Amino acid sequence: MSLAYNYPVCHMTTIMLMLALGSVGLLRGEESAPALTLAQRQVFHEIMQSAEKAAKTQEAADILKLGEIAKRIDRNLLSEKPDEALHERLSNELTDAVAGLVRTAITLKLNTVRDLARVLTPEQKRLVLAELDKPDANPDLTELLKKVFPEPKK
To answer: How far apart are CA 143 and CA 136, in angstroms?
Structure first.
């Protein structure tokens, strides 16, 4: 298992985090929906920036961890007598590390959308819920917020 083998896993993690967190320009879209206050928009942007920074920091640590496990697997496989028990243990360790990445990404996403929802007034929450109840609604709250509260055009 080479580092090139791990690159897609790490790249996939980055993509998953980016999709999970959305972009810093959180609220773009149509202009017909009710607007958020300037203070709410600023808090939304701060929440998203903080989440993106945390994701990038975690990603760097995860890349190192996956790389080390992969090297240990490689060393075992390339040794004179590869140890099957060690290979199984390291394979499980790699699987657990990848599962941990997903768990971390989901936790970060859930914490981020919770923080975003806390910024909304009860009336704004009702508007978002009405949009969420539509059959074709996007279940990703960050995407739904972009639709319901679009960024004002400059």
So the answer is: 13
23-35 per-position pLDDT tens digit: 333 333 333 446 7
User: Rounded to the nearest 5°, which phi and psi values hold at 134?
Assistant: -70, 145
DSSP 31: S
Q: Is the distance from CB of 10 to CB of 63 less than 8 angstroms?
A: yes
| Cα 48 to chain centroid, rounded | 11
Query: How many other β-carbons are positioned within 10 Å of the β-carbon of residue 105?
Result: 22
Hey, what are 41's tokens? Answer: 């928009």
Six token digits for residue 91: 């394979």
Domain boundaries, the chain: 3-21+34-122
pTM recorded for the entire structure? 0.67
